[in-house]
TrEMBL record:
Domain N-acetyltransferase: 26-190
PROSITE patterns: GNAT (PS51186)
Annotated organism of origin: Agrococcus pavilionensis RW1
Protein name: N-acetyltransferase domain-containing protein
GO MF assignments: acyltransferase activity, transferring groups other than amino-acyl groups
Amino acid sequence: MPVQPIAPAEAMRTLRGALPLRTERLVLRTLSPDDLEAVRGYRNAPGQRRWTYNRDQTEAELMAWTAGGAPVFLRDGDAAQLGIELDGALVGDLMLRITSLGSRQAELGWMIAAEQQGKGIATEAARAALELAFAMGAHRVIAHLDEQNVGSRKVAERLGMQLEARLVDDEVNPATGELGTSLIFAVRRPG
């Protein structure tokens, strides 16, 4: 059976109509310039960048990250960065990227402030984002993470994702200067 690509306009309508997305404890929403200091606090905290394979973000990068505006999905690789609020405070963010419109593929990534980790926030936010990705037309959603990132591995497994690949020493982590081994977890749309 032929596969129809994700329709960009429909995906954007679905995402925009869902935001802000509320879960039992959380609110997922677009980031705004008012979030700059909170984002700087958890994204550039010691040890956090190790899992994102980036150096600390510069002022200009943080400003771009928190510029706000409606997410756009016009081509492969376009992503929405959603803030995660708990009790009215920004405690992390979540990336929802369309990796292939034609093959109906998406990717999720998450970062939670260190002091908020271990409370189920990443799992709750990622579960809502996974459901949103499927509603936007994704057939398969992946999480690409460092093998040593045990917390994110547990989140992926709680979402029902299965380990599909282990890429040994596949890239240099700019935060550490060392080679890292990546894990690719994936889940397909039910039914």
